[in-house]
Amino acid sequence: MKILNLYAGIGGNRKLWGDKHEITAVEFNPEIAKIYQEFFPKDKVIVADAHQYLLEHFKEFDFIWSSPPCPSHSRIRQHTAVARGQNKPIYPDMKLYEEIIFLKYNFEGEWVVENVISYYDPLIIPYKYKEHYYWSSFVIDGTKEANRKHNAGNEELSKLKGFNLDKYSGIDKTKILRNCVEPEAGLFIFNSAKKDKQITL
Questions:
Q1: Of 48, 71, 160, 189, which is most buried by a Cβ count within 10 Å?
Q2: pLDDT tens, 110-138?
């Protein structure tokens, strides 16, 4: 299968997928893209705007995973930081819903869009797994709750996500690890697609 991994980060969702498939990862930050490439040398890594890349290349793939930026939808940012005056209110980034609608009505393969649980009622009803939202073309039969340890330190987050960033400098390791999808969740979502659609992943 040809898989497109958008807003790839360092590859938390992709970590347990193996190397059986042809995977293209798109990441805007070149430093983070370089780290991804070192963890997954067989993947094709592209430094680009994932939102635009999706629009221009979606027909080239069989499976698409998208994890658009989450801060503008986050309960933590809205109820903690904004409420305390630490951050100014901002518009929710509606690219999230643009991609859901676009994939639903234009993409013939299987797809999933992942994001945090929002501080508002979601405009399109998602599946929920491990304290995250997932919109998809297949059934995700799981509501497993888990403490994501979002406020944990780098050492604990590294163990939870399975990535050691000790050798890297000049990056916000805590932010990168917090944004990283748990590998177990990434594998569960793929298994859900396989179970629902009887496809080979």
A1: 189
A2: 999 999 999 999 999 999 998 899 999 99
